Amino acid sequence: MPETSSPAPMPSPSAGASVIYREKLWPNLWIWIIAAGISAAGILVFAPISLAAGLTAAAVLFIIMAVLLVLSTPTIMVTAETLTVGRATIERRYIGSVEQFRGGEATAERGTRLNGLAYLCIRGWIDPVVRIEITDPADQTPYWLSSSRHPDRLTAALTGH
């Protein structure tokens, strides 16, 4: 995507830019429980060799899954000049309306009302979503749709309310 919202490395705010809002979309507890359950399957696979091999395999599998979950956790960051959602960054001057959705409305935004050109940073374990309109004429992305545990705070940070 060669537009303004193309994926970029996570920028750190410049010396003069203070962070107005920051949120990490960490996995819920049940995701960690599932990771532990899957890693426990290592015991079943390697227990016929030895119980120590099974326990070691389970521990290694859990560590690998935990590292992958932590490394893949996106950040939402709002500064006075920019908005960063996951790997994408855009100047705030190109942000139009900002709307938040919960429950059935959030499900519809992620499903039947979803525009195929939208930039998505959604996590299935976080229900609320925030739709951020993109007004850059050079960018074909109509809006960004992001999960947020605190959609009120994110909306307020973007709209100044």
Comma- or semicolon-separated keywords:
single chain, 161 residues, alpha+beta, four-stranded antiparallel β-sheet, four-stranded mixed β-sheet, 8 strands, disordered N terminus
How does this structure look, described?
It is a single chain. The protein has 161 residues and is α+β, with helices and mostly antiparallel strands. The chain is built from 4 helices and 8 strands, in the order βααββββαβββα. The protein has helices at 29-46, 51-71, 103-110, 151-159, and strands at residues 19-24, 75-79, 82-85, 88-91, 95-101, 119-121, 129-134, 143-147. The strands form 2 sheets. It has a 4-stranded antiparallel beta sheet with strand order 1-2-3-4, covered by helices on one side. A 4-stranded mixed beta sheet has the order 5-7-8-6. Helix 1 packs antiparallel against helix 2. It is elongated. The two termini are 32 Å apart.
List the helices and strands and how they pair.
Layout lengths: L18 E6 L4 H18 L4 H21 L3 E5 L2 E4 L2 E4 L3 E7 L1 H8 L8 E3 L7 E6 L8 E5 L3 H9 L2
Parallel strand pairs: 6-8
Antiparallel strand pairs: 1-2, 2-3, 3-4, 5-7, 7-8
What shape does the CA trace take? elongated
- The count of DSSP E runs of length 2 or more, i.e. the number of strands, is 8
- What share of residues is helical? 25-40%
Average pLDDT over all residues: 89
Side-by-side strand order of the widest sheet: 1-2-3-4
Structural class: alpha+beta
Order of helices and strands: EHHEEEEHEEEH
Q: Which regions have little confidence, pLDDT < 50, spanning 5+ residues? A: 1-13
